[in-house]
Specification:
- The structure holds 2 protein chains of 2 kinds.
- By secondary structure, chain A is mostly helical.
- Chain A has one domain (2-303).
- Chain A has helices at 5-30, 40-50, 61-78, 95-116, 120-151, 156-161, 163-167, 170-190, 209-212, 218-240, 251-275, 283-303, and one strand at 54-56.
- The longest helix of chain A is centred in the middle third of the chain and has 32 residues, at 120-151.
- Chain A starts with a helix and ends with a helix.
- Chain B is built from 24 helices and 5 strands.
- Chain B has helices at residues 14-35, 40-68, 91-114, 117-120, 122-143, 147-165, 172-203, 219-237, 246-252, 255-277, 285-308, 312-339, 343-378, 389-392, 394-407, 414-432, 435-467, 483-501, 504-509, 511-518, 532-554, 579-590, 621-639, 649-669, and strands at 72-78, 83-89, 559-561, 598-601, 614-617.
- In chain B, the strands form 2 sheets. In chain B, strands 1-2 form a two-stranded antiparallel sheet. A two-stranded antiparallel ribbon of chain B has the order 4-5.
- In chain B, strand 1 (72-78) and strand 2 (83-89) form a beta hairpin.
- The chains are: A mainly alpha, B mainly alpha.
- Strand 1 of chain A pairs parallel with strand 3 of chain B, so a sheet runs across the interface.
Chain lengths: 304, 670
């Protein structure tokens, strides 16, 4: 539905940095602090876009391509996801494959941009990102398969907008809930949140994503931060569509419910971050493999 | 016995005419360099010119055949052999001939810049002669319409490629690789000879046109033929676990030969399998399941070992094992869904396999050409020693980045299209099935996603460490690749992008081949339409450009400083991440013990550092732990028979006497 393209993009571009603000605020409130303003990321982006850049003398065009891919890919991927009442602007049979491989495109360039600096620190982050993705990607596929089996469709738009009518159903409810749990873990892992990664620390040897973008500065860093916020928004939108109200109402109510659910998701992530410590690095693969197994279990439950 | 269908050669159809021209050029190319044996530069020029002419006219022939869609035959009487020298090109043959001739032309041009004729001496003439001979025989394998012609061309292909692998015969590694290749390819060849003899006996003729009587075979015999073909062709195609020769042979050969072997030679075996399967009766569903299990296992195994290799070309060779596994996965899915009567999925799976054959020829050819350029420029193939080539060779390195993206199936490049088709076939099978079957196919989907993740890891490691950062060790610096080496790479890169952006065109071209293989019209329409590339590509480039422009403006006052040195005062390139360290986390967390790389290190024990050594290798587990010990045992047993060879004349006379007596007795009884 191409008519939904404009509101879709406006929602994504304007709202995504707010979620990061909400997560930070939640963590601050729990810790008893006042915290940064909710709109802090908007200020940061505006400031960074006006700044100059320091670029490593080792780097090439690949280094500049990383942030661009990190920004463009979430926008493109979002076009296949419905945002509540706003249906996906594009959809075709099998677009779920494109969705997954688009994120692989972003990862490819982020990893290469990290390796372009020649720093062993960033090489370390790049290796971790590529390795953990090998574990997260099959889980995403299994979750999509569960959704496809439940809805009988292979388009993301149809899969996600029909979920609400299935989740109350006894045969599909439990697998769907398990899939939602797995998806929540994947959202945390893919967006570098605690317990996988701590977005607040750059200089710890155990970091993944933050390590890779260490040498980016100025507008490049702004692109990365904005891209990361949008990636969280897109993957969050996947998760949120499990829990939207079942009866289709008018577009405004549905979209409001969607936005509300997204804000709640941000609060939930903030709560997880306040309650948990980051996992030791050797535990991360174990958690990811466990999630894959859980998603397979959901599939078996559904097909039994 | 033989039916000689002699057509006069003068009014040849145009596609056949062009093919004949191509074959003539390549035959000339096999002989002419030898005439100029003492003058290496002239020999090289002759070899390149004939190879290029043959390749280009072959591309025209295959392309016109694919467009017109009419099959054409050529049959010349060949009285000495008692058969007719029959050629037949149809949609399927032309489908395989197109990438074949494309890479032959590319390899000829590339080789003219890659090989230094004066340094090679007399070797240059032999190299070019064998290269053209390999091209000629590959083309004959694909266009043969007679079992004898096929087998002769098959053997010619094996031998000429063996001599090309042995190009650096002074190197003990190359000798070992060549020996392994010779053994493996002939073990497979023996089974093919058995197949053709048996099929020829049953049909009364070795002509493929007579093979249609095989369709009335009883199921057990058909199954026997299927297994013969699978092992015979699988050994050549690099089907797991018969792939053991491949990772040794491809790195040993010069890069343009590796590109030819990896890009098209292994595919001729897939052609043979498809062609022969079209003569056999429909196979049961479990054959498909067997084939797709082997394919999936090969894909996982190949990419895992590709991830661990330090040698650039060895890593690419293992990636060929992975891609061949994906092709066989597609073929297995096709066999299975045909046997279970799911025509739409069958068409999808077959198209995926065929599309991937083309795609793999394009990006693997490009990657091997690129690896040769890297070796030329840096003087080493070890990923741990390379680095920083993108600044020295911007164009070639950017093309390698592109090819890495294509092989990792990133949209909007060509690899994505076949990966999408394959995943859709799996998902469609899983959607339609119930219970355990559904779980099987859906878990295969997840495994394919895992393979995709590992491919991304392997190729971001390859491109990132070879091309980016700083050189990890100062080696002997060679020269930048000449235009003759870059031009074929550019063509292949353009095709990778073009096929990805406009997948409808190649999809239409391979429809004829799919129909011939499936026996029924097999049309697959991409739901995103042939124009998705235009929309998607425009969107991507438009957005990327916009951001880039905004960027440029903002970055007018960029400062260039060295990379932050992690707190070291004098960081140097030897502290950078290496090939081993990049894949270490994946190796320790994802791999089972038998697949782990073998590490030999001297531990530091005392306070003051002493001389230490560290080495990490990832040998082939199937070869090292399975086949090599088994063959060793076999050889030790076989030594027992040496006692028969006593070296004494009287014993040999006794043998002869016994043999004569036995034969006489047999003759009298029989």
């Amino acid at each position: 539905m191409l008519s939904h393209l404009l509101p879709h993009l406006i929602l994504l571009l304007l709202l995504s940095p707010l979620l990061t603000g909400i997560i930070t605020r939640t963590k601050a409130v729990i810790a008893g602090r006042r915290g940064a303003p909710l709109l802090q990321l908007y200020f940061d982006l505006a400031k960074l876009f006006r700044k100059g850049m320091v670029v490593s003398s080792t780097t090439t065009w690949v280094f500049r391509a990383g942030p661009v891919a990190g920004l463009v890919v979430p926008v493109l991927a979002s076009l296949f996801i419905p945002f509540g009442g706003i249906r996906a602007p594009f959809s075709f049979n099998g677009d779920l494959v494109l969705f997954v491989y688009l994120f692989a495109l972003a990862r490819f360039f982020t990893v290469l941009a990290a390796l372009d600096t020649g720093s062993s620190f960033e090489g370390m982050g790049a290796a971790r990102e590529a390795t953990f993705a090998c574990l997260a990607e099959p889980t995403v596929f299994v979750i999509f398969i569960v959704l496809a089996r439940v809805s009988g469709s292979l388009t993301l738009d149809a899969m996600l907008s029909s979920l609400q009518s299935h989740i109350g159903h006894p045969a599909a409810g439990v697998p769907l809930l398990l899939a939602a749990v797995c998806l929540f873990v994947v959202v945390l892992a893919e967006n570098c949140r605690i317990p996988f990664d701590d977005p607040n620390t750059h200089l710890e040897l155990t970091m993944i994503h933050e390590v890779m973008v260490l040498d980016h500065s100025g507008p490049d860093l702004a692109l990365i931060l904005y891209g990361a916020a949008m990636k969280f928004f897109v993957m969050g939108a996947l998760l949120v569509s499990f829990f939207l109200p079942p009866q289709p109402t008018d577009i405004v109510t549905e979209t409001t419910a969607f936005v509300g659910a997204m804000l709640l998701l941000a609060v939930a992530v903030g709560l997880v971050e306040s309650a948990m410590a980051r996992l030791r690095l050797i535990r991360v693969p174990q958690l990811l493999v466990g999630t894959s197994l859980l998603s397979c279990f959901a599939l078996v439950l559904l097909l039994r | 016995m033989t039916s000689l269908s002699v057509t006069p050669p003068s009014p040849l159809p145009s596609a056949m005419q062009m093919l004949f021209l191509a074959l003539a050029c390549l035959s000339a190319g096999a002989l002419l360099p030898l005439v100029a044996l003492g003058r290496p530069r002239l020999a090289q020029r002759l070899g390149v010119a004939t190879g290029l002419a043959g390749g280009v006219s072959g591309v025209v022939a295959a392309f016109s055949m694919l467009i017109s869609g009419t099959a054409s035959d050529l049959a010349l009487p060949w009285t000495t052999a008692g058969v007719s020298f029959a050629l037949h090109i149809d949609g399927l043959a032309a489908f395989f001939l197109l990438p074949l001739f494309l890479l032959v032309a590319g390899a000829a041009l590339y080789g003219s810049g890659y090989l230094d004729a004066t340094a090679e001496g007399r070797g240059a003439a032999f190299h070019w002669s064998f290269l053209n001979l390999l091209a000629l025989n590959m083309a004959l394998v694909v266009s043969a319409a007679n079992g004898l012609v096929f087998l002769l061309a098959w053997e010619g292909m094996s031998l000429s490629s063996f001599f090309l692998v042995m190009h650096a015969y002074q190197d003990p590694d190359a000798l070992k690789a060549g020996r392994l290749y010779l053994i493996a390819t002939h073990l497979g060849g023996a089974l093919l000879i058995a197949f053709f003899l048996e099929a020829g006996r049953r049909c009364g003729s070795l002509d493929f046109s007579a093979f249609s009587t095989l369709r009335s075979l009883a199921p057990p015999q058909a199954l026997f033929f299927f297994l013969l073909l699978l092992v015979g062709f699988g050994a050549k195609a690099g089907l797991f676990p018969l792939h053991v020769w491949l990772p040794d042979a491809h790195p040993a050969a010069p890069s343009h030969v590796s590109a030819l072997m990896s890009g098209v030679m292994v595919k001729t075996a897939i052609y043979g399998l498809l062609r022969m399967l079209s003569f056999l009766p429909p196979l049961p569903a479990w054959c498909g399941l067997f084939l797709l299990t082997l394919g999936m296992a090969g894909a996982l195994y190949g990419i895992t070992l590709a991830m661990l290799q330090d040698d650039l070309k060895r890593s690419l060779a293992y990636s060929t094992v992975e891609n061949v596994g994906l092709i066989f996965l597609g073929l297995g899915l096709w066999l299975y869904s045909t046997a279970t009567g799911q025509a739409t999925v069958a068409a999808l799976a077959l198209t995926a396999a065929l599309f991937h054959i083309w795609n793999h020829s394009l990006f693997k050819g490009l990657l091997f050409f690129g690896a040769g350029a890297v070796q030329h420029a840096a003087g080493t193939r070890s990923i741990s020693h390379l680095g920083g080539l993108l600044r020295r060779l911007p164009l070639v390195s950017s093309l390698i980045v592109l090819a890495s993206g294509a092989i990792a199936a990133l949209p909007p490049l060509n690899g994505f299209i076949s990966e999408w088709l394959l995943l859709m076939a799996l998902l469609a099978l899983g959607q339609a099935a119930t219970g355990g079957t559904a779980v099987l196919f859906l878990l295969l989907t997840a495994l394919l996603a895992l393979v995709g993740g590992l491919v991304l890891l392997t190729f971001s490691r390859l491109a990132g460490l070879v091309l980016l950062g700083e050189p990890r060790q100062r080696g002997a610096l060679g020269h930048a690749p000449p235009a003759a080496m870059v031009a074929p790479m550019l063509v292949l890169a353009l095709l990778c992008v073009g096929v990805g952006l406009i997948p409808g065109v190649p999809l239409k071209l391979l429809r004829g081949a799919a129909t011939l293989v499936a026996g029924t019209p097999a049309a697959v329409v991409l739901p995103f339409g042939p124009l998705w590339g235009f929309c998607g590509g425009l969107l991507v480039t438009g957005a990327a450009l916009l951001v880039f422009i905004a960027h440029r403006r903002a970055a007018a006052g960029d400062a260039r400083r060295p990379t932050w040195g992690c707190g070291f005062l004098r960081p140097n390139a030897r502290m950078a991440y290496t090939a081993g360290s990049f894949s270490e986390l994946a190796a320790t967390t994802l791999l089972a013990t038998p697949m782990q790389p073998v590490v030999s290190a001297t531990p530091t024990t005392c306070l003051f550092p002493t001389r230490a050594a560290f080495a990490r290798e990832a040998p082939d587990p199937v070869l090292e732990r399975g086949l090599a010990p088994f063959c060793g045992q076999l050889a030790r047993r076989a030594y027992l028979f040496r006692k028969l060879q006593a070296g004494k004349l009287d014993i040999y006379l006794l043998y002869m006497f016994l043999a004569t007596t036995l034969l006489l007795a047999w003759a009298m009884v029989g």
